[in-house]
Amino acid sequence: MEFDAIKYKDAIRAEWQKTAEGWHRWIPFISQWLGPATELMLDLAAIEPGDHVLDLAAGDGDQTLAAARRVGPTGYVLATDIAPNLVAFAAQSARTSGLENVEARVMDGENLELEDASFDAVISRLGLMYFPNLQRSLREIRRVLKPGGRVSVIVFSTPERSPFFSVPVSIIRRHAQLPSPSPGQPGPFSLGAPGVLGAALREGGFKDVETRLFSAPVRMASGAECLRWREESSGTLQEMLAGLDDSKRQDIWEEIGLEFKKFEGTDGFESPCELVVAVGVKEE
Predict the structure, then answer these.
(1) Which of 137, 152, 269, 275 has the smallest number of CB atoms closer than 10 Å to its CB?
(2) Residue 152 to residues 161, 191, 239, 278: CA-CA distances in angstroms?
(3) Helix (H/G/I), strand (E/B), else coil: 225
(4) Where along the chain do its domains lie?
(5) 174: burial class by Cβ within 10 Å (0-12, 13-18, 19+)?
(6) What pTM, to 2 d.p., does this model score?
């Protein structure tokens, strides 16, 4: 079956609309888990006080707030996402944090309704790998960046390096009889193989491309807690489960829970997770 980018995007938007509240509820954990990688992303983006920063697929806006603190009151950060409920949470989080230099808008990362050369940096944490037309998005990123501006992103590396995510994906795919994604199709691990993300950035017209592998193990109290997190907050997994009845879904989550128990030890649950953090620079 031919991949339908429009249908895929609509499904992703719909599932993130449903799971936005769950994602927001787990943000304290997510922020701690991804905090060090986020700081590296912001370092590579060379974000400084006064900068204007665009956050693509910003979700709840956790990394948006980290960028906003760096740019300070003279700077500006725009959080964008295709799911309105996530954008609403990002705006709420900015208000709660007392950050007045943040704006949140519903926007498609492949069609940026923004002026040319208007941002010093563009960031995206665990979002770019879900864009069905990656090169179109990268062209848009280049367009809105100022000369010398940077794009810095985080994606997952390969499935075997992040079993907390790949195990549920594999189990759901088997039960739902979903085919493996074809090369070039979006998905959680679509940009994670060695050299893929760097090559995409270079093809998108960026120079001085650098990629780094980053270990970010998932540590939780138990496999059951990790199961609850994945069930409540993953729009990706929920989108894969769409069309299955409640009984089948329950069977799938029980099987995932049994697999998660294999990652339990004396200190609780721990799964490896490997990220790729990359940066590219727009020509002066």
Answers:
(1) 269
(2) 21, 14, 27, 6
(3) helix
(4) 5-158+186-217+274-281
(5) exposed
(6) 0.95
Query: CA–CA separation, 262 vs 35, rounded Å?
Result: 26
CB contact set of 108 (below 8 Å; sequence gap of 6+): 9, 82
Q: Are 205 and 239 in contact (CB under 8 A)?
A: no
* CB 202 within 8 Å of CB 151: no
Paired tokens of 172: 């759901």
Kindly report, residue by residue over 187-230, the tens digit of the pLDDT: 999 999 999 999 999 999 999 999 999 999 999 999 999 999 99
**pLDDT given for residue 2 in this prediction:** 77
Rounded to an integer, what distance in angstroms lies between the CA atom of residue 77 and that of residue 54?
A: 6
Confirm or reject CATH 3.40.390.10 for domain 5-158+186-217+274-281, answering yes or no.
no
CB atoms within 10 A of CB 131: 24
Burial 48-63 (b: 16+ CB within 10 A, else e): eeebbbbbbbbbbbbb
With the C-alpha atoms ordered 114, 119, 125, 131, is the resulting torsion angle positive or negative? Answer: positive
Q: Which residues contact 255 (CB under 8 A, 6 or more apart)?
A: 171, 175
Cα-based torsion angle of the residue sequence 110, 34, 199, 3 in order, rounded to the nearest 10 degrees: -50
CB 217 within 8 A of CB 32: no
Helices (H), the chain: 5-25, 27-44, 62-71, 84-96, 134-144, 163-176, 196-203, 223-233, 235-241, 246-261
Phi-psi domain of 178 (left: phi exceeds 0; alpha: psi -120 through 50; beta: other): beta
Per-residue CA distances from 130 to 70, 82, 108, 211 (Å): 27, 12, 12, 19
Does the pLDDT of residue 56 top 80, yes or no?
yes
Q: How many CB atoms lie within 10 A of CB 245?
A: 8
Residue owning tokens 């050299």: 195
